[in-house]
From TrEMBL, chain A:
Keyword terms, alphabetized: Membrane, Transmembrane, Transmembrane helix
Coiled-coil segments: none
Gene3D superfamilies: Transmembrane di-heme cytochromes, Chain C
Signal peptide extent: none
Transmembrane portions of the chain: 12-29, 71-93, 113-132, 144-161, 173-204
Protein name: Nitrate reductase gamma subunit
Domain of life: Bacteria
TrEMBL record, chain B:
GO molecular function, one term: 4 iron, 4 sulfur cluster binding
Keywords: 4Fe-4S, Electron transport, Iron, Iron-sulfur, Metal-binding, Transport
Keyword GTP-binding found: no
A matching Pfam family: Fer4_8
Domain of life: Bacteria
Name of the protein described by the UniProt record: 4Fe-4S ferredoxin-type domain-containing protein
Transport among keywords: yes
InterPro entries recorded: 4Fe4S_Fe-S-bd, 4Fe4S_Fe_S_CS, Cys_rich_dom, Helical_ferredxn
Record-annotated 4Fe-4S ferredoxin-type domain positions: 80-103
């Protein structure tokens, strides 16, 4: 079991993540050719790009400027979510050991800070769901589920590195398991917003632009 | 009018399947229920931030439920959904601007309305209006002859203000075919006269059709897209028959959006473009002043603010033209905050005004946001280039004691324009 999780499962997870995401995008693209004439009739690449870019910036859009605390929370969450696993020393070393490819990494201290920032912002986002009535009313069990799927790899990674709670190899086992779960579930749950964001934003930026209206 | 036949889930599903697009699927997959749409919504703000008024919730309890239950819902459930889809949303689309993913919640509400309309679940007045379009071609059941007579009468009476004022009917090859909201011939014929005066003074080659003169498209909001398409087609046909270069819509918001942006899809036009260019009075008047075809005696002196109608400034392309025209007409233009495409809906749109007395109380509560926006400008004059906004802001004026006067562009231009001597009505008795 341990060997499976730390070996083949990782590669399966990556494959599911890549193929699943591509499949989602391609099937939507194919469908859109048939059902979304409005998009192709009025596509405006400049507005689409501007809309995507503005919303990738922490205060690039009017709605986020109006809610700076939320914007900051979202931004820290996503930046740490992407940077930490990509550049964690542990990941780079594993990668080099298995594939012989050198991968750049961040010092452990910095990775620790990013992880803690991630955990804090994730708790902030969870807190919003409990505390704010207008978020609570639209929160469903699956929202908590995807939150856990995102939170657990970071928590277990942190605990494994600091040798806390469980023996390191057991904790590492959990860390890899949860990490794989996140990758596998990403294309098929709401986590798919990671790539669907670009499609829906390109549409709305373009759609409003033909009416002279900005969406950022 | 709503009958009590059992709910036909197949008809509901047919609407959902027709609207099953890649973008709708992507929206349903991406929404993270983050709640950022809440504060975009004036219904939410005006109702003390009650969570039930936040946009995503409203889409979820209407279209979301219909999709989940595959149309198998009871009449009671449909009635509850009706109060959400019509009574808590004007489809102003401000939430689409606020959503990080740009999810068009307003469009989802619109699909929910289409579903319910198949079951005759819809505010009664809107269903009556659908019927009126089918029978008379306009929402106020005015026979075409009566419209033409009103125009003749208005031209004649207007000659006291502008010499030789004419309202050409069915003139071929005109530059502009001007079309109105049937509210004008019914209750405010003066509006037709003033629009005619502006175009006459600008030396425009224009006309009005004796059939196809109605521009409003309330079926867009009742959810009856079949009738909505018919109304648009009649408009396009009239312009093509007269070989008019452009269709110009009177100072009405949803009429413009329907004719220019949504109509081409209902009537299956190639590339989503209207067969005849569609423009709006705001743009037309803007160009007259810009090009010096209309000259002013002086600008309006008192502070004046401007209501940006959602269907002109957010779902239309006229925000900047509205502001530009205000600058040209007023010494002291005070914009509201937030402004232009970010402006709040006044709660007159989305069919709310024609929904009538049953919904007036809701309209007055939700209009609080607009009333406060106006109050903050400190202006006693509000320029409103949309009929439904006009009615709503007049009602808000009474409800919230705003002490304002609502004006339209044509009214203001007629008051300020400097007519050349040959157009000035001479005092003939004195001359004799």
């Amino acid at each position: 079991m341990y060997a499976f999780v730390n070996g083949p499962l990782v590669w399966i997870a990556f494959a599911v993540f890549v193929v699943g995401s591509l499949w989602q995008v391609m099937s939507l693209y194919k469908m859109s050719k048939r059902t979304d004439k409005v998009f192709y009739d009025h596509y405006n690449p400049g507005a689409a790009r501007a809309s995507v870019w503005a919303w990738l910036m922490p205060l690039g859009s009017r709605p986020l400027r109006e809610s700076p605390a939320t914007a900051l929370g979202f931004f820290v969450f996503h930046v740490c979510l992407i940077l930490t696993p990509l550049f964690a020393l542990g990941h780079a070393v594993t990668f080099e050991f298995n594939r012989g490819i050198h991968w750049p990494s961040l010092p452990d201290g910095l990775t620790d800070v990013l992880t803690l920032l991630f955990l804090a912002s994730a708790l902030f986002m969870l807190g919003r769901r409990f505390v704010l009535p207008h978020v609570k009313i639209v929160t469903e069990p699956k929202d908590y589920f995807v939150w856990c799927v995102t939170f657990l790899p970071f928590l277990t990674g942190f605990l494994a590195y600091h040798k806390m709670l469980l023996p390191p190899d057991q904790m590492l086992f959990l860390h890899v398991l949860f990490g794989c779960m996140m990758l596998i579930l990403l294309p098929f749950t709401k986590l798919a917003h990671a790539f669907l964001f670009f499609l829906t934003r390109a549409f709305i930026g373009s759609e409003f632009a033909r009416r002279g209206t900005k969406t950022w | 009018m709503s009958d009590q036949k059992p709910v036909n889930a197949e008809e509901i599903m047919a609407v959902i399947e027709r609207n099953d697009t890649a973008r709708l699927r992507a929206w349903l997959k991406t929404c993270m229920s983050c709640g950022l749409c809440s504060e975009s919504c004036f219904f939410y703000l005006a109702n003390d931030n009650k969570p039930e008024f936040m946009p995503q919730y409203k889409a979820r309890v209407t279209l979301g439920e219909l999709i989940k239950k595959k149309g198998n819902v009871s009449r009671e459930q449909l009635q509850e959904m009706k109060e959400v889809a019509w009574g808590r949303c004007t489809m102003c689309r401000r939430c689409s601007q606020y959503c990080p993913f740009g999810i068009e919640i307003a469009l989802m509400i619109n699909i929910a309305r289409q579903c319910m309309r198949t079951q005759n679940v819809c505010p009664d007045r809107l269903m009556t209006i659908d019927q009126s379009y089918v029978e008379f071609g306009n929402q106020m059941s005015i026979p075409d002859e009566e419209f033409v007579e009103t125009c003749e009468w208005m031209a004649e009476e207007g000659q006291d203000r502008l010499k030789d004022l004419e309202i050409p009917i069915d003139k071929e090859d005109a530059n502009i075919m001007f079309v109105v909201n049937s509210r004008e011939p019914k209750y405010y014929p003066q509006d037709i006269q003033e629009a005619a005066m502006v175009m006459h003074a600008a030396g425009e080659n224009w006309t009005m059709p004796s059939h196809g003169w109605e521009a409003t498209n309330l079926s867009m909001f009742s959810g009856n897209l079949k009738v909505a398409g018919q109304v648009t087609q009649t408009l396009y046909d009239a312009a093509q028959k007269l070989r008019a270069k452009k269709i110009c819509i009177t100072e009405c918001g949803h009429a413009y959006r329907a004719a220019k942006y949504e109509g081409p899809y209902w009537t299956k036009q190639p590339n989503g473009q209207a067969p005849v260019e569609v423009t709006h009075a705001v743009k037309l008047f803007h160009d007259y002043l810009k090009e010096g075809r209309i000259k002013l005696k002086h600008k309006f002196k008192e502070p004046m603010t401007y209501q940006h109608p959602c269907n002109l400034s957010r779902s239309g392309d006229l925000g900047a033209y509205g502001d530009g025209l205000m600058e040209m007409l007023c010494d002291n233009y005070v914009p509201m905050q937030p402004d232009a495409e970010w402006s709040h809906c006044c709660c007159g749109g989305g069919g709310f005004i024609p929904m009538g007395a049953d919904y007036k109380k809701i309209r007055m509560v939700a209009g609080k946001v607009k009333a406060e926006q106006i109050k903050k400008t400190g202006c006693k004059y509000v320029l409103v280039p949309c009929h439904n906004c006009t009615d709503q802001i007049n009602d808000l004026n009474k409800e919230y004691d705003l002490g304002i006067k609502v004006m339209s562009f044509k009214e203001l231009i007629c008051e300020l324009m400097d007519l050349p001597p040959h157009m000035q009505p001479g005092d003939e008795e004195e001359a004799e």
